[in-house]
Structure formats: structure tokens, C-alpha cells
């Protein structure tokens, strides 16, 4: 299958949370890590998040903390119910990924709000089919993708075998119970866990920047 090179970026506590149970995630990591995160954005053709992240954080998904061009934004929004006053509608081009069969008037409304809408089918898990999103990206000349979450999107992308590289910023913070950086994958045995290789760890301020590739 043709797909972009996919980096999954996570900014998490030492115990693997990307937000509190109430959805607060600002800010887990240091300013230096966040600038490095913007560098990853500047190096990508596109950046992808789920509707949950847009609802919780209202992110701009732009490059601001380093020099560079903001990537095209892709948001998984099956029913196109993200409000057009969200910040993702400003700045670099926005592509909303909707489910096939979504009401045509919703598509027209979002297009008139300035977004492009791509419709894709459902995956075996009943969610938007990420492999179809990737294929469409290649057709559109988007060859590198940065996935920035949230928890459920990270799980889907890993489960579907679409992630090539992981960049995890780990902050010296502990939340105990919180939103896990990667949602449920359903593994019952350690032997089934997704395995990583080519590990590189470097300090970045008080945080760690952990980079690895997925063992295929
Ligand atoms: N610290 C960090 O690095 C970081 C980064 C990003 C987000 N966050 C935090 O993560 C939280 C949001 O995470 P979340 O897990 O609730 O939501 P999410 O992963 O951002 O979005 C999940 C939603 O995306 C849509 N979706 C469509 N197709 C999907 C697919 N194939 N796989 C997964 N989702 C799909 C679904 O909504 P529809 O059915 O409406 O389409 C689904 O409910 C927020 O609290 C945010 O602050 C933290």
C-alpha cells in the first residue's frame, strides 16, 4: 500500500498520560520540547489529529515556535460536526475526513467555511479508514505525516500498522490515572505488544525526547 512516512508524536507524563481525566493537557512538556514539536510540524507535509483533540484543545496546529511553513491540517471528523469557529479553520489548508454518506449539505457548509472534505469508508473497527486517508494523501502529493493524537487516533494508527516512527516527549511529571498516550490496543500478552527499534533518547531541558521506529 502506498502511504506517507508517518511520525506519531506524543507529549506525555513519565507514567504515560497525555492529559488528565478531565482532558487538560496544557502543558505537560517544557517550552523546549514544544519548540521541538513545532520543528516536527515544520518538517511534515501534513499534520493529523482526531475530532476529540480539536474539541478538547482547539489547537491551531501551526508552526509558531520555530521558523518554517505550517503543514496542511487533517482532522478526522466523521460527521463533520466540528464547529467552524475552531482555530483549525484558520491559516494553512484544512482537510476534514468525513464518513462516506455524510449529509451533502454538511459538506457544502464546511467547504464554504474554507475546508476541503474527503470522504472515506469505515475500517474493521467501525472508525474512519486511515489507510484510505493515507492513499488519498499520496494522490495529493502529501508524503510525510505527523500524527499528534489524541489517544484514540494514536491507537488506531498503531493498530492499523501505519506508523513508521514514534517521537515521544516525556516530562518529569506523574498523573496516576489520566488519559493514556495510546488508547486500548486489546493485547492480552506482552508477546503481542508493538515493538520498537533504533531507539534514541536525548535530554531536552528537564524532559526526554525518545525516538524509535516500529519493528515491522
Ligand atoms: N499531550 C499530547 O501529546 C496530546 C496530543 C493531542 C491530544 N491530547 C489530548 O488527547 C485528548 C483527545 O484524545 P481522544 O482520544 O479523546 O480523541 P482523539 O484521538 O483526538 O479523537 C478521537 C475521535 O476522532 C474521530 N475518529 C475518526 N476516525 C478515527 C479513527 N480511525 N481512530 C480514532 N479516532 C477517529 C472520532 O470522532 P468522530 O466520530 O466525531 O469523528 C473519535 O472519537 C484531549 O484531552 C487532548 O488534550 C494530548
Topology:
Elements lengths: L4 E9 L3 E3 L11 H13 L2 E5 H7 L14 E5 L17 E6 L4 H9 L3 E5 L9 H10 L4 E4 L3 H9 L5 E7 L7 E2 L15 E9 L2 E8 L2
Parallel strand pairs: 1-7, 1-8, 3-4, 3-7, 4-5, 5-6
Antiparallel strand pairs: 2-9, 8-11, 10-11
Describe the structure.
By secondary structure, the chain is an alpha/beta fold. It contains 5 helices and 11 strands, in the order ββαβαββαβαβαββββ. The strands form 2 sheets. It has a 9-stranded mixed β-sheet, sandwiched between helices. A two-stranded antiparallel sheet has the order 2-9. The radius of gyration is 17 Å and the shape is globular. It binds NADP nicotinamide-adenine-dinucleotide phosphate (NAP). NADP nicotinamide-adenine-dinucleotide phosphate binds near residues 53 and 57.
Assembly type of the chains comes to single chain
Helix content bin: 10-25%
CATH fold name, please? Dihydrofolate Reductase, subunit A
CATH superfamily: Dihydrofolate Reductase, subunit A
Structure summary, number of beta strands: 11
Bound molecules: NADP nicotinamide-adenine-dinucleotide phosphate
Task: Assign an overall shape.
Answer: globular
CATH class wording: Alpha Beta
The residue ranges in which pLDDT falls below 50 over 5 or more consecutive positions are none
Structural class: alpha/beta
Arrangement of strands in the largest sheet: 6-5-4-3-7-1-8-11-10
Strand content: 25-35%
Topology pattern, helix = H, strand = E: EEHEHEEHEHEHEEEE
Radius of gyration: 17 Å
What is the domain tally? 1
Question: Major β-sheet, in short?
Answer: 9 strands, mixed
